[in-house]
Amino acid sequence: MSQLRRVEKIKTVLETIKEQRWTSVNDFLLAYYNSNDPDIAQQARRNIAYTDGKRFAPAQILDSWLESAHGETKHQLELMITHKAADILVKESTKACHDHKLKLASTKVDTAYLSTDFALSKLAAMYQAMLPCMWLLLMTVLTATNDYERKKKKEKRDKDSKIPPVIVIIISMLLFARNRATNLFQVVIGIFLSSTGAGRRVINTFNHMGLSNSGKRSLFTLRDLALTPEKQAQLTDAFRHHTGGRRSRKLWKRVKESKPQIRVLSHEKTEFYPLPALAQEEASVAGTIKVVVKLFTQVLGLVEEVVVSELRLLVGDWLTIRNLRLMKDEVAEEFTAFARMDWVQEVAMPFHFQLNAMYMLFRTHLGFPGDNNPSSLEHHRMLLKRSKLDPKKPEYNKAKELVYHSLIARILDCTRTSLGYDNHQKLKSWKPKWEDFNAVVNKIVADYASTRAAHTALLTGDEVLAHSILFIRDALLFREFSEAIQDADVGRMWLVHDFWVFMMRGAGCHNYGNEILEMKAQFTMYPSYAL
Questions:
Q1: Whole-number pLDDT of residue 86
Q2: Kind of pairing, strands 312-316 and 344-348?
Q3: Mean of the pLDDT values across residues 204-210?
Q4: Could you give the residue ranges of the DSSP H alpha helices within 229-284?
Q5: How far, in Å, CA of 360 to CA of 357, rounded?
Q6: Rounded-to-integer distance, Cα 234 and Cα 498, Å
Q7: Does the global pTM surpass 0.90?
Q8: What residue ranges do the domains of the chain occupy?
Q9: How much of the chain, in percent, has pLDDT values that exceed 70?
Q10: Residue 318: helix, strand or coil by DSSP?
């Protein structure tokens, strides 16, 4: 159809509308699309119907309006579109705020949920389905060409894959600001911040920004990691065993029989390969990669196929573990399994946990010179005339001797109190039978080695007794871990880790507290090889 013919037809339609006494074309169109006549309504719906493969007619009309409008008319037209989009966003967000899948009570969060049911990719898919208009607007704005891309005439690499996590954060903040119960994203971020040692002020700042729940609620969600009734019962059994001590041969035999066992490793003689010093720095990530490759291919003489056939445990302190993780992150995109280091499993040595647990004990229970607190380790050190120790990083052997000496003295005093003796000399003549001995041990564990007993002492105003009870509890935990290493009982070590993850964070030993969480995630949630 020629342009002249199109103009003639348009004029004819306009004349017809005028002849039928319509005040304007807009008046006719409003009456047409709002008509209650079935035939007219059906025709109107057909005019705005969407058909695959064809351009949407309303979109064409809207584009024509925007192209032909100028000045205030164009501004009002754009404002009208904005208001309509806002109405759609409100409806979408209202629907999302009422969706139970985006609400998460702190009491229902556990490690199983965090390891299986939650992921940013899953949350992104939920937002795209529930809030398509909001997602489209944010994606359009964030992926729009910037000045740098226009200048270089090249789009940034991986632009489309990096934007969705940003959109998830933005939408989560908006929904949380509108309805605090829509908190799925905030609960998980709060747990992450708490587990990495962030302080309450930091978490509360994130909470005010809409990125996290409050610090108090974040702490509530961590309880699944430890302190279940089963774990408490296992630890109580261990405390009874350690409190028993060596009274007589018969009693000691019964005490040894009561030693708990959870998962004892079998004994196997391993081959020993003395390794030479390598002329290679390992402080950097690149240096660590070279050391690991040299170690297996040159020093041990293994081919790559043999190396990747099994999971290789590389042990060390926290700095070594950190470098190994950075190394694996660096080569994660390599093409072969050997180059990706999938076969490397970094593990912190048990002794380093013992060492940092001793630091934790001293930071918590050492006290200060001159504070006259008879329950502090510093007070006992002065009574025993031991050499002064670093309050944050004491020499391990001397610190261990002081802790054990203080622990034994306190347990003896608890025994005296439980028996009703007025001095310690009477303990020498105490020759109990197993039933009497076991009853005293149970009383000591219940009254002088539990958190509940310490809280009871605090409520009665006896802070010295409360501090002493907490020291006995913490020292027995350390003793349990040390003996579990000797017995090769990884189950008992794992149990102590569940308690230390909280205690180390409280004492400021964040590196090894976080390492416990990392270990639990690696070995229970997503091991890279079958273990």
A1: 92
A2: parallel
A3: 89
A4: 229-244, 249-257
A5: 5
A6: 12
A7: no
A8: 3-77, 89-225, 229-260+352-524, 285-348
A9: 92
A10: helix
